[in-house]
Design a protein that fits this description.
Strand 6 and strand 7 form a beta hairpin. The longest helix is centred in the first third of the chain and has 11 residues. Strands 2-14-13-12-11-10-9 form a seven-stranded antiparallel beta sheet, covered by helices on one side. The chain is an alpha+beta fold and 367 residues long. It is built from six helices and 19 strands. The protein is globular and about 70 Å long.
């Protein structure tokens, strides 16, 4: 009998929690999920296109040299057929920054930009690869969406550099026109919520981090790009029940970036096999927020993939994915397969078999 593949080892694989201080450009904007990205204007050309072309040519046919159109700086440099540098006994950070300094024009940076990079994290994998993370700052205020990351092999060869470090972040103004309270109000107003007055506690760190009595937060950051704008990075809770991370221009109050941190989905599931004395009936379950990737339309992730294997080929072919019955809801009826002649001694003679050749829906999400 064809099988229902339900590899629900861990539905948390569906999650992709938002990073706290590394913002990637969002592909979706609009009211459906509250996400918004207004940082990008007209595409920015590299400062020295000839230097970019020369670097690409020097790295050969396997070169990966990608320009970030929002800043004009390099977003990724690597090779598909090798390494960027030879082996070295030098520290991994020195290897990576040495490559950047040797190619400043291509990266669109000045020497002072490299000097201003702050190494904030270094990890080493089991295979000995060093992963290094640098932050760009303006007098202690970090850039929210630029920086540098590098991977260096155990023998000191540079594997790649990513992160889109931006020119001039070090010189960005750090004197906001808006207070953190005003920034919080602007962020809430943009999602249709009136900001109630609450007490706030402001820290004396470089970001002027402010924590409000209701749990909302605000801290200064720089939005990299042509203007390297000062902004307040806020965490606010709207009247719609969602919690948002909103980056608000510290001068105008305009929301430059907003990401909903609240994701949810429900499903009607069996906690045990259908008909079992314990857990044999279907219950409505709300998945924890960190189980669901924004806009998820399948039950799939790096550790689990649930689908109906109607043709028994161990692959999710067209029409076999467990898509939601309605937005954010997986709720499908259970149609047991009738017991056939000869089933008395088989599993179908003891348990409810849930595959029905005439009803593909019966194979969906019955776990």
């Amino acid at each position: 009998m064809r099988r229902l593949i339900a590899l629900l080892v861990s539905l948390c694989a569906l999650a992709a929690p938002a990073a706290a201080h590394a913002v990637a450009a969002l592909d979706r904007t609009g009211p459906a999920d509250g996400n918004l990205d207004l940082r990008a204007g007209a595409p920015v050309a590299p400062r020295d296109a000839a230097a970019v072309a020369a670097l690409r040519a020097r790295l050969g046919d396997g070169a990966v040299v990608d320009v970030d159109e929002r800043t004009g700086s390099l977003r990724m440099v690597g090779r598909l057929d090798g390494f960027l540098t030879g082996g070295s006994d030098a520290d991994g950070a020195a290897v990576a920054l040495g490559f950047v300094r040797a190619n400043l024009d291509a990266f669109g940076l000045a020497a002072a930009d490299v000097d201003n990079l702050v190494l904030v994290r270094r990890t080493t994998t089991v295979g000995g690869i060093q992963r290094l993370f640098w932050q760009q700052r303006a007098r202690g205020v970090p850039s929210l969406d630029s920086g540098l990351r590098a991977n260096v092999a155990a023998d000191g060869r540079l594997i790649n550099i990513v992160g889109s470090a931006s020119r001039g972040v070090r010189s960005a103004t750090v004197a906001p026109r808006l207070s953190p309270t005003q920034a919080r109000s602007a962020a809430l107003r943009a999602v249709g919520t009136r900001a109630a007055a609450v007490a706030a506690r402001r820290s004396f760190d470089g970001r002027a981090t402010t924590v409000f009595a209701n749990g909302d937060r605000a801290a200064l950051g720089v939005v990299a790009g042509a203007g390297n704008r000062l902004a307040w990075e806020t965490i606010v809770r709207g009247d719609d029940g969602r919690t948002y991370r909103a980056v608000v221009d510290a001068t105008s109050g305009e929301t430059l970036l907003r990401r909903s941190l609240t994701q949810h989905a429900t499903a009607r599931v069996h906690r045990n096999y259908p008909g079992a004395a314990a857990g044999g009936t279907r219950d409505i379950v709300t998945f924890p927020a960190d189980w669901i990737a924004p806009g998820a339309t399948t039950l799939a992730g790096p550790y689990a993939h649930a689908f109906a294997d109607l043709n028994d080929n161990q692959a999710a072919d067209g029409g076999e994915e467990a898509a939601p019955s309605t937005a954010d809801v997986w709720d499908f009826g259970l149609t047991p397969e009738p017991v056939q002649t000869g089933d008395a001694g088989s599993a179908c003679g003891s348990f409810t078999c849930t595959w029905d050749a005439g009803d593909a829906i019966a194979t969906r999400a019955q776990n």
